[in-house]
Every structure is written in structure tokens, then in C-alpha cells.
Amino acid sequence: MPSMQAMQQYVLPNALSFAEVDGVVIAQINTEQAQAEISLQGGQVLSWIPKGAEPVIWMSEEAQPTVGKAMRGGVPVCWPWFGPHERKADFPAHGFARVADWACKGSQLLDDGSVSLLLELVCDGGSKWWPYATLLQVEFRIGTKLEINLSSRNLSDRAFVISEALHTYFQISDIEQVSVSGLEGVSYHDKVTEAEVQTHAGEIRFASETDRVYVNSPATCVIHDPGLKRKIVIEKSGSDSTVVWNPWFTKAERMGDLGAEGWRKMLCVESANAFDNVVTVQPQQSHSLSVVYSLL
Description:
About 5% of the residues lie in helices and about 45% in strands. It has helices spanning about 5, 250-255, and strands spanning about 15-20, 25-30, 35-40, 45-50, 75-80, 105-110, 115-125, 135-140, 145-155, 160, 165, 170, 180, 185-190, 200, 210-215, 220-225, 230-235, 240-245, 265-275, 280, 285-295.
């Protein structure tokens, strides 16, 4: 875990501070534009609340910082694989980055009033989970928009393949009332029915468990939420997959950490590279996945 003393060099008066909660260091951003919290364990956004708006990022009421355990909600970083490992059933789901301790490497109050925070995770190539030397960085820009850039640099002498996602949980008014546009005509893998690849027509609406990986689509998506009278815009680059997920009540009860009726108030629209869209990173080269979240 990063020491609180080491964090002091990155404090920005009246904008960015750090707190330790149950052994987990959390960056706290509070400006005229927004409030946010980011856990250095996992490089995970825990909240983002633009001034004058309802929270945009959902966290389970059951979530508590716990050393070595990812919290349900926020923006977990799934890397270097998405979902279960394709060969090793005992490897952690969604990779190891989401529970690793990231180091803070920079902070800045930008001219437009937003805050920039840079976190870094160095893989030395000696892990049983990941035998490649890699520099993983995630940079956040927190203001009226939330921008996240996840960069994977291959420091080894061998190419490697990654699948990845920013597994974002968005706060919504009611899953049965919202819809998602931007994926019309896009093919998807249905992880609930395990049916053959299908193509979606029209906006996505929800009436049961949904777990779909839309492929070959770099498109912008929009969550339409009439209950909160807003639209959440999800722009991305370096991502050719979009995952749309809500567990519905039966699976939510089995999961046990979504909180009472939590499934009704959250929707994951994840910018990813998975299934057909895994990424090969050549030696000494980098790949970046970037998102920009905003409200209309």
C-alpha cells in the first residue's frame, strides 16, 4: 500500500487530498466542477458527482474498502483479461489489476479547473499471472466531464495479447425505465443465453438479466434516463467492444453484494476489448483505451 507520507507530494490544496480507509488509500477530489473519489487499490473510480448533478457512478451500499478485494461498483479496471482467464480457472476473474496497489505518479490542477491524476502499475514479468514486463498507467481528468485513459506499454521482448475493460457502473433511476442507444445494428455475444452471435435492432431496453458483449463497435453510446431527466454520454477510443450488463434480481440475490434493490439502480456500459476484439501489443509498443463521460 502507498504510504500516506508519500502521497503528500501530490496533494493539491483545495482540490485533491488523500485519506486512508481500512488500509486502502483513496484520492479525494473536490473542486468547483465536481467531487470524486479514486482508490489507489485497483486504480478504481469510486464516485464522480458533477456539481449540481446526481451521482453518475454507482457504488453498492454494501461496498467497503477492503485490502485485496475489489469493491462492487465504480469503475474497476479489468486487465489483462476480461472475465475468466481462458486457460486458468483459478486465476482471478477480470485480471489482477483491479486489486493491485497502484502508485501515484502525478497530479495537476489544470487551467480549465479540472484535476488530473496519474496512477501507475509496473509488472516485472515474474508473476505467474502475467509473465511480461509491462508498464500500465491510468490517467484521470476530473471535472465537468470524467476522462479516463488506460495505457498498456509492453516492456518485454515478446508480443502479448490482452483483453480489457473499464467496467463502469452507472447510477440510474430505474433499470426498467432506461434505454441505451448507439449499438443499433451491432453484433453481440449473449453471455446469458449463449446463443449464436446476434445483431441488435433499435435501442436496448431491459426486462431481464442482460449480459452482452457488442463487438467491432467503437461507437459512442448514450444512456437515456427519463427518471433522472438526463442522458449519460459515453465516448471512447481504442475500444472496439462494448459490454452491457445488469444482473436482474435473481442473479443479484445470488451475488449478495449489490445491496437491497441495487440491481434496479445500476447499469454497466463498459468500454472494452474482448471476444473478437482482443489486442496484440508488440514489444516496446503501447495500446491505449480512453473514455469520456458527460451529461446532457
